[in-house]
Design brief:
The complex is a heterodimer of chains A (about 250) and B (about 350).
Chain A lengths: L11 E10 L2 E11 L4 E6 L5 H8 L7 E6 L2 E3 L4 H6 L2 E4 L11 H6 L5 E2 L4 E2 L1 H15 L15 H15 L3 E5 L7 H13 L6 E5 L3 H7 L2 E6 L2 E7 L5 H9 L4
Parallel strand pairs in A: 3-10, 3-11, 6-9, 9-10
Antiparallel strand pairs in A: 1-2, 1-4, 4-5, 7-8, 11-12
Helix pairs in contact in A: 5-6
Chain B lengths: L3 H4 L9 H6 L4 H17 L6 H26 L7 H19 L3 H26 L3 H24 L13 H8 L2 E4 L2 E4 H19 L1 H11 L1 H6 L4 H27 L10 H11 L11 H20 L7 H23 L6
Antiparallel strand pairs in B: 1-2
Helix pairs in contact in B: 3-14, 3-15, 4-9, 4-10, 4-12, 4-13, 4-14, 5-6, 5-7, 5-12, 6-12, 8-12, 9-10, 10-12, 13-14, 13-15
Chain lengths: ~250, ~350
């Protein structure tokens, strides 16, 4: 459901985002622009401020200073559901999915399609749209009607990403999307993430896995102790340079 | 794009017809109900007579009406220990208002409805506000309502029961609506049976066909995921408690117009009958799974056991032992079937 955006407007634009907790500065003047269809990785050591930034972009925290723009328009989020209605979808590490329900119901949970005249659930349409979406993203599942508990971990994360993609008009935010997955499943999920480029939403992916960053991201931005160290195109930076920026140690 | 042989993860099993049938939540209860029916029919020739069946249905309906609200609540992940005394509270409210203010009994009926819904809303509100478990919150309201029932009744009437409402204006109409005998093919069936059936149909429709139904399953099965997906979990749970309140009011009005007086100490322990009906009917205590039809079969099992023991001329002393054993057997059976049919589906 991506809205058409001209190439010069950014899906997400962060200007001078700052967050204080009492006397502690968690994020200091963070800037970032993500184009539609671009995948940007956010990396940093533990305590660097990644989670704080994720919570600001997903509406859980309000920044102390700075501006958030979605598709060019300045905005602020009252809470996560507000951020969601404005077009930011989050894929959580712990998969916010309902095990006992079928795939299509998970896809439409909270935004169920209804049919006339009584406003009853349109299961057929939801299943059809889900099938079309998982086919497009090549999430390989037995059926859109299969209960979620029948799927493997990788398939589930694929569904979570497909769901976020389906509803995000501006940005898909992924917090360690493959942290809980095995090697083969991680590879599958990465393929799905890369396929999001064609769908036009911006993607911000938080990852601890440097190989993954190099495999999927177009650009990478580094946080160290609340300060933005650098933002680079992925082909401008080597593995060792990235590690050096994250740790602050020169090799 | 994807090729057929890649679609299936080799660790994920397929499901046959057998498995799909046996993951239905009602199936264990249905099997138990059939066995029970055959046993009582064999032991007692009276059991299968039409008049006996009508009596069994009546007994089942008095539990079944409440089991509708309680089973939905349980699918939503919560329990209500105050459901038993809430029925008495509701009946007392109507009777005491009629006694104290005089006038038309329907003012009492109306106010009692408001009070019953308010008690439900309060339970739900306290639960979602305090984030305590529903066991604690409704245990507290169970005790408070029990005390209120006795205290207020004694304060207003000086006794432990309300005076008869038979003379009050509006009584005849109330009796017609809440406690009528409906002749069907020469058999007299209590009107509560029809209310029960209607509630089961409505609840099943809500669960299967509406967004709210979907939210009930999600709120019970995975509240965090539901919240993250934008489901109004709090409102859903409060609504479920209000639903229990409505069922309590309906049953209370039947009791009021059928028996004309209300004993203020009644209702204690009945909450467990409703829970038994829901659980025997396949609802999971942990939420997210179950059906209103299952709970109705659970109530039917209760009705058959209650009256069957009498028709078979066994000692009714054993009824509760039987109910407990039934609960255990049905639950174990349910879980066994579901595990077998859908490995990994029930955790």
């Amino acid at each position: 459901m991506s809205t058409s955006t001209s190439t010069d407007t950014f899906a997400l634009q962060l200007d001078g985002i700052t967050k204080h907790f009492g006397g502690i500065v968690a994020i200091k003047h963070f800037d970032l622009q993500i184009k539609p269809g671009e995948i940007v990785a956010l990396v940093g050591d533990n305590g660097a401020g990644k989670s704080t930034l994720v919570k600001i972009i997903s509406g859980m925290y309000q920044p102390t200073a700075g501006e958030i723009r979605l598709n060019g328009a300045p905005t602020n989020f009252r809470d996560p559901s507000d951020a969601r209605t404005k077009g930011v979808e989050v894929v959580y590490q712990d998969l916010a999915l309902v095990d006992l329900q079928p795939v299509y119901m998970n896809m439409f949970l909270g935004r169920e399609l209804r049919k006339k005249p009584f406003g009853t659930l349109d299961r057929r349409e939801m299943a059809a749209q889900t099938q079309a979406l998982v086919d497009e993203l090549d999430v390989r599942i037995p059926s859109a009607k299969a209960p979620l508990s029948d799927l493997s971990g990788g398939q589930r994360q694929g569904i979570a990403i497909a769901r976020a993609t389906n509803w995000a008009s501006s940005l898909v935010l992924m917090d360690e999307p493959t942290a809980a997955l095995g090697v083969a499943e991680t590879a599958r999920v990465e393929q799905i993430i890369m396929r999001l480029r064609e769908r036009g939403a911006g993607v911000l992916i938080v990852s601890h896995n440097m190989e993954q960053v190099f495999r999927v991201a177009d650009r990478v931005t580094v946080l160290r102790r609340g300060t933005q160290v650098a933002t680079k195109r992925i082909d401008e930076v080597t593995h060792n340079e990235l590690i050096a920026m994250i740790t602050g140690l020169t090799s | 794009m994807s090729t057929g042989d890649l679609i299936r993860d080799e660790r994920v099993r397929g499901r046959g017809l057998f498995e799909r049938v046996f993951v239905r939540p009602e199936i264990g209860a249905l099997a138990a109900a059939l066995v029970l029916f055959v046993v009582f029919a064999a032991v007692s020739p009276v059991f299968t007579q039409p008049a006996s069946l009508a009596t069994i249905l009546y007994g089942a309906s008095t539990v079944g009406i409440m089991a509708v609200g309680v089973s939905l609540l349980m699918i939503g992940g919560e329990v209500d220990l105050s459901a038993g005394v809430a029925v008495t509270t509701s009946a007392l409210t109507a009777a005491l208002i009629a006694y104290w203010f005089g006038g038309n009994i329907w003012w009492g009926v109306l106010f009692s409805l408001i009070a019953a819904l308010a008690v439900g809303a309060l339970n739900g509100w306290l639960l979602t506000r305090t984030r305590l478990s529903s066991f604690i919150v409704t245990l507290a309201s169970f005790f408070m309502l029990t005390g209120l029932n006795l205290g207020v009744t004694r304060m207003l009437t000086g006794g432990v029961a309300t005076p008869s409402i038979e003379a009050a204006p509006g009584y005849e109409l109330g009796r017609e609506i809440f406690a009528a005998d409906v002749p069907v093919f020469g058999i007299t069936i209590k009107i509560t049976v029809f209310y029960w059936i209607a509630l089961v149909i409505i609840a099943t429709w809500i669960l299967r066909r509406t967004r709210v139904g979907n939210w009930i399953f999600a709120s019970g099965g995975a509240p965090a995921a539901a919240r993250a997906s934008g489901v109004p979990v709090r409102a859903t749970k409060i609504g479920l408690y209000i639903g229990v309140g409505f069922c309590a009011w309906l049953l209370a009005m039947h009791q009021l117009f059928a028996f004309k007086t209300v004993q203020s100490g009644e209702g204690i322990g009945n909450e467990f009958l409703y829970i038994i009906a829901a659980v025997v009917g396949g609802c999971l205590m942990t939420g997210g799974y179950g059906s209103a039809i299952g709970a109705a079969i659970g109530a039917l099992i209760y009705g058959m056991a209650l009256k069957g023991v009498v028709y078979a001329e066994w000692s009714p002393d054993w009824l509760k032992f039987f109910l407990g054993a039934m609960l255990l057997a049905a639950t174990v059976f349910n879980v066994y079937l579901q595990r077998r049919a859908a490995r990994g589906r029930i955790r």
